[in-house]
Every structure is written in C-alpha cells, then in structure tokens.
C-alpha cells in the first residue's frame, strides 16, 4: 500500500496530502494487515450470510477489531510525517494556493512558497514556519515536496515556466555519475509512474468493488442514482488504463531520468477533458452519498463492498474525490519535471508543451466548474423576481452575460418603457421595477436570442417605429420579422450592450463546441436550494462539525473552520474572477 492513498478523506474536503509523496515517506511507520479473502459474487444477504454473516455482522466485526484495513489508526502518511519530525528530520511542503489570513495565529503564504512542516498531528491544520514566521495553515493547501533532500537554498531558484536557474544546477554529482539534477528528475519520473499505477488501482477498486456490486442490488440503487454517485468514472478508468500503458512504454527502467514521458500527456490531452463531466458532477455525488448514508443499510453495504475488494480504510466519498484531485496534480507534476529537465534533454520540449496543455485542460475544467457554481446564483436571482412566468431561466441558460437599464420602444404609437434587462446565453429577460419600492422587480417578458440578429441604429428618426431615437439598436427576428427597438442613455452604454450581444453568441458557440451542458438534476437542485433560501430570507449556514477540541497547548488555539478554496485552483496566477456579481450587484433586489 502506498502513502498516496493511505489517509482518511473527509466529505467535500481536499486530501490533506497530495499524491506527490516525499522520497522515503512511503516506508516509514507502516504495517500491512491482510484480511481473509472473501469470494466475489452477488452481494446479497444470502451470500454474505453464508460466507461471513450479514452485512451488519461484517461491518461490526470489522469495526470491533483493533486494526484498520491497510494502516494502523488511519492517517498512515500523517503518522510517517510526524515520525520524521520527531526524529529531527526537516519536512518541507509547497503551497498549492494562496492562504490569505488576517489572523495572527495563522501562517499566510502565496502559491509556490515553501513551508517547513513542524507539526502534522491534526488532519486539517498543520503548524509550519516560513523564515521567522510560524502559525497554523490548512493541510489541504500544500503538497509535500518530492525531493525532500533538495537543498533549501536551491529550491527558490526558478524562473517562469518552472525552469530552474542553471547558474548552480548540474554541478554536483549523485551516485554513479548522475548529476543532482538527474537524480531529482529520476525522483519525479518515479513518482509520476508510481502514482499513476496507484491511481489505476483506485479506479479499478471503485469500478469493480463498488459499481459492480451496486448493480447487483437493483432493490437499493436505480441507474440514475448510480450515474449520480459515480458519474463517468468508468470512462475515466478506461482512458487511464491506456494512458498508463503509454507512460510505461516511455519509462526507462535502467535510467529513469532519460525517460521521455512528455509526449504521452500531449497525446491524451483531449481525452483528459472527460474529467470535466466528472468534476462537475462530483458535488451531486457527495450530496447523494450523504443522503444514502443516513440509512444504516447503505453504510453496511458500502463497507462490505470495500472489504470484498480488500480496499484500504477510506470511505467511498474519499475514493470518489481522487479523480478530481488527479487531473489537477498533472500540471504540478509536469512543472516539477520541467524544472529538473535540462533544455538539451530530448524530452524538454514535449514536457514544456505538455505542461501548457494540461494547464489548458485544468482551465477548461475550472471554467465549467465556475459555470456550474453560477447556476445557483441564477436560481437565487430568479427566486427574487415577482410574478415569474414560463420556464425557469436554467432550462436554457447558465450564464449571465450582461445586465442594465434600457428604454424599450413598442408598437403601436411607439410607446416607450423603462425596463431592466438581463442578457443570458440564449435569452434576454425583461423586468419592471416597482413604482414605489424600486428594490422589487416584476417579470414582464423574454426574447429568444437564438432567433435574433443585432442591428445598430443611427441617431435620428427610425422609419419602422416612426420616432426619433438616440443610442439605439434593434433585435430582429429572422423567422417572424418581429423587431424590438431599444435605446440606451449614453453612447458608451449602447456599445457595451452591442459587445455583450457578441459575447452571448460567442458563449453559445463555445458551449456547443465543448459540449457544455447542465444536467436536469443540477437544475432541479439549484432551484430547490434557491426556493429554500427565499423562504427563510437568509442563506443557510454552512455547518462544520469538525474539531471542537484544542491542539496541544504549545500552540495557540486551533482555527475552527477551514478556508474555502476551489479544488481546481492550481499553483499559478489566479484567473480573472467572474463578472456575474459585478453585473448583478448593481441591482437593488440584492440589497433587501
């Protein structure tokens, strides 16, 4: 069992440890416990009773024993780190994300900073030091350095793109004629190969240990439930099996530092986009699992599945988190590989291109994740609109492109009306402000943007509406010849609207090309959440039932909550934030 998988995982949390385990940590403080092999077969009560008793008995026997399958006491990697620290070794971790804090008991840092880990007793919060500053920091915000033996003074010497400053590299020798840099590259290559094999084992266990058994119990699971819980993980498993075979063909066992693995990532960059669907579905999987595990028979069933497959003691939701993390680890691993690859190496250009390619894959996944987060905000917005009619916005749209006030001119008599307009992908929603309470909006109508073309209108008298206009534009329906005339207050506002209409068409085309869509389950859940919040009048509090206790008294009080970070944010400059709230914050309904 490798340290890459031997730790407890919490629902909706990042792993406290990356799969990039420091050299040597996978051998410290480990004992392997082998449980009796249980024959595969239909996981029904009869089979379980004949072999090992009922599902409940199996579960209770396991829990009453004095060991946990795979590692003693859980958190084996964490135990290994603390053993190294207690032995006087120095353990370093690299920050994956910025940790911004105003608390003087917490340790702030930037992505890429190197932190000395001084105490890893707690799963979620570690105690660390940067220069002369010490404090708590979230364990999930860092990854342990692959090369713990790398001199600290050499580590920051890197330039943009992950390349190391060559002024001092390659001068020392390691082992049989290898430079230190070659040995470091060997460590990274070995890590990539070993974690990939471990990951394949994870996927196989999920597909054969859980999905296979769940399908035998039609009385407990519907196909829709299984799709929600496991997403497209079987497709990912098939893809990764081919990918790991390609990696192993490029792996030079005798001289790992000479391996040329960059081309493998380039070859599979398109296939890796299937992770987007999985990552988008993952929150739904967690919610469905949370609902099912409130019933004891599902708890017993999932535990029995784990034992039948001889899997380590990690809950199902923990196993289902690994694909989300894996796709985000690739850019980090490739950045480190590039750092230890000489420009003269035959693999250098491929690794450099692979790093950019995998960053692009991660960005695509991030963007889709952002879009899915926006649907909750759109649902909340719709729930605040009075007299809503027709289908929900989410039936056709998932992005607010632009919003603002316009004058709409209608037939007959060229009647003008001040209205608030919200441009989403595929549709333009029209609302009216309340005459007395301007913070209330009433639904009036919507326009299908798929049938419209945008016409810029010059200032002066418009022939179609027989009226003088300024800062105007038209929406013309190609099928019905219906025309809508709008006027902005200022020329710059008109230009912003024209640009927004271009962006809307571009977004629709991009979604078609990338296959982006929202599932019916996600739409229903967003509307349900918005309805609940609308009735209560305030957002639901996020409960965090963890850590009511204090750490050892040598440290200040342990922080009570974990900072919230996107699981998809990589150690690179932050992407430009969504303009959703910048657009919608101008609207008074959100000041209620």
Give an overview in words.
The chain is α+β, with helices and mostly antiparallel strands. Among the domains are: 76-144, SH3 type barrels, CATH 2.30.30.40; 181-375, Dbl Homology Domain, Chain A, CATH 1.20.900; 399-516, Pleckstrin-homology domain (PH domain)/Phosphotyrosine-binding domain (PTB) (PH-domain like, Roll). It has helices at residues 45-52, 55-64, 76-86, 180-215, 223-230, 233-250, 262-268, 275-292, 296-308, 316-339, 348-384, 491-514, 520-536, 580-584; strands at residues 91-95, 114-119, 125-130, 133-138, 142-144, 173-174, 178-179, 400-410, 415-424, 427-433, 441-448, 452-457, 460-462, 467-469, 472-477, 483-487. The chain has a 7-stranded antiparallel β-sheet with strand order 11-10-9-8-16-15-12. Strands 4-3-2-1-5 form a 5-stranded antiparallel β-sheet, with helices on one face. A hairpin with a 3-residue loop joins β6 and β7 (178-179). α4 (180-215) packs across α9 (296-308) and α11 crosses α13 (520-536). The two termini are 55 Å apart.
């Amino acid at each position: 069992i490798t340290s890459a998988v031997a730790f407890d995982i919490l629902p909706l949390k990042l792993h406290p440890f990356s799969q990039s385990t420091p050299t040597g940590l996978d051998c410290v403080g480990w004992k392997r416990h082998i449980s009796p092999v249980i024959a595969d077969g239909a996981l029904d009560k009869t089979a379980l009773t004949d072999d090992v008793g009922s599902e409940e008995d199996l579960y209770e026997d396991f829990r009453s024993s004095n060991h946990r399958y795979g590692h003693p006491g859980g958190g084996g990697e964490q135990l290994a780190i603390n053993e190294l620290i207690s032995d006087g070794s120095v353990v370093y971790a690299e920050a994956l994300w910025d940790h911004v804090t105003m608390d003087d008991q917490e340790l702030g840092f930037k992505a890429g900073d190197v932190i000395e880990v001084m105490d890893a007793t707690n799963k979620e919060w570690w105690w660390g030091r940067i220069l002369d500053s010490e404090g708590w920091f979230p364990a999930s915000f860092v990854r342990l350095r692959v090369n713990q033996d790398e001199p600290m003074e050499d580590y920051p010497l890197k330039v943009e793109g992950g390349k190391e400053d060559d002024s001092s590299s390659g001068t020392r020798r390691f082992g049989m004629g290898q430079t230190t840099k070659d040995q470091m590259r060997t460590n990274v290559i070995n890590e990539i190969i070993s974690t990939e094999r471990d990951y394949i084992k994870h996927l196989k266990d999920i597909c054969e240990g859980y999905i296979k058994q769940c399908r035998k119990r039609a009385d407990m699971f519907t196909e829709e439930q299984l799709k929600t819980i496991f997403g497209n993980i079987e497709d990912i498993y098939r893809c990764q099996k081919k990918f790991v075979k390609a990696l192993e063909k490029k792996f030079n066992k005798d001289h790992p530092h000479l391996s040329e693995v960059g081309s493998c990532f380039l070859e599979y960059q398109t296939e890796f986009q299937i992770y987007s669907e999985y990552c988008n579905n993952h929150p739904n999987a967690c919610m469905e699992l949370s609902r099912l595990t409130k019933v004891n028979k599902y708890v017993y069933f999932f535990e029995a599945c784990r034992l039948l497959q001889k899997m380590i003691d990690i809950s199902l939701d923990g196993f289902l988190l690994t694909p989300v993390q894996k796709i985000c680890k690739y850019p980090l691993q490739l950045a480190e590989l590039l750092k230890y690859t000489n420009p003269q190496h035959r693999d250098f250009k491929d690794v450099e291109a692979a790093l950019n390619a995998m960053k692009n894959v991660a960005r695509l996944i991030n963007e889709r994740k952002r879009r899915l987060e926006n649907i909750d905000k759109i649902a909340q917005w719709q729930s605040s609109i009075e007299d809503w009619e027709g289908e929900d916005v989410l039936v056709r749209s998932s992005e607010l492109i632009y919003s603002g006030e316009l004058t709409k001119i209608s037939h007959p008599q060229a009647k003008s009306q001040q209205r608030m307009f919200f441009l989403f992908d595929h549709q333009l929603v029209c609302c009216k402000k309340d005459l007395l309470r301007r913070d209330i909006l009433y639904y009036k109508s919507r326009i299908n943007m798929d049938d419209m073309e945008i016409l810029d209108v010059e200032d002066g008298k418009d022939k179609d509406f027989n009226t003088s206009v300024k800062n105007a534009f038209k929406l013309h329906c190609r099928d019905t010849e219906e025309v809508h005339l709008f006027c902005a207050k200022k020329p710059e506002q008109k230009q912003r609207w024209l640009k927004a209409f271009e962006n809307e068409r571009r977004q629709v085309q991009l979604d078609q090309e990338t296959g982006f869509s929202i599932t019916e389950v996600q739409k229903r859940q967003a509307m349900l959440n918005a309805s609940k919040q609308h009735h209560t009048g305030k957002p639901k509090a996020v409960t965090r039932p963890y850590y009511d206790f204090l750490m050892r008294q040598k440290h200040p009080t342990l922080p009570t909550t974990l900072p919230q970070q996107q699981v998809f944010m990589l150690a690179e400059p932050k992407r430009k934030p969504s303009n959703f709230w910048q657009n919608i914050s101008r609207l008074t309904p959100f000041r209620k």
